[in-house]
Amino acid sequence: MKRILITGGTGFIGRNLVQHLVNQDIVLSNFSRSKNYNLLNYESSRKFITQFAPDIIYNLASHGGSLHYVSKKAANVIHDNISMYLNLYKAAKECKKPPVIVNPISNCSYPGNTSVQKEEEWLNGPVHPSVTSFGSSKRALYHIAECYKTEHGIKSYNLIFPNAFGIYDATDPNKTHALDGMILRMMKAKKEKQKEFEIWGTGSPIREWIFSKDFAKYLVLVPNLDENIDLINIAQNKGYSIKESAEIIKKIIHFPGNLVFNTKYQDGDPVKILDDTNFKKLCSPEFTNHEVAIQETVNYYEGVL
User: Using 50, 70 and 90 to split pLDDT, how confident is the model at 267?
Assistant: First the structure.
């Protein structure tokens, strides 16, 4: 029976992963701050991890937030993330049998000037300045994993995901992922009977999204498909404009006001999607329909707010 450890298991993706795994024939443990475990403390992390002796670690613990947050708290974000990653790998090497570590990596770690993001171009330039703290820490995680494989034989799977959204995300729009933040703000606008909902920019930029349940599914599935995977996009090679997503949300929540696009704000890159060539060689991907996923997310928020 496999022994599985999830760091950050009470967080956004962590809760989705627990739901995905809960009925499987495994021994599951959750390492999270809500249970008084903290990866910033090496000694307590080492003690817990070596005693539990996991076969697989899903490395979901991270310090992140909205674009504004990771810019404002840049030093804290990069310090905490790299410290946690180093402590995790240092503790893992102390296990009698080294665990496999699965690392989800945000697509914001790609160079800031890429549109269709390909694995072989991942390190071909700096991340966008707005996400230096978070994106660079994810690149550091990849290199930490490489070094621990070289010296200690620890196998890691590094899976690059697009922008996530869905159930179990935070309820504070300043702490959620972008699409969930838009859902929350529009729900608030409806409740307050606002006549307009403002979106920064023209609404034309295209972004790729992944529903949180799909995120959890592929975290588990992909490492079981090919043990030689090192770095791979979990990708659809498909995106939706900000305007399209906003109109879907407006329809689902029955917001009666108008969408207003404030063009004083710049759009950023016109397209940001992940190339799916390697992913399609690995499997036949199936993703939740974007509108269905937004509907399920709205249902979740209506139930918890």
Answer: confident
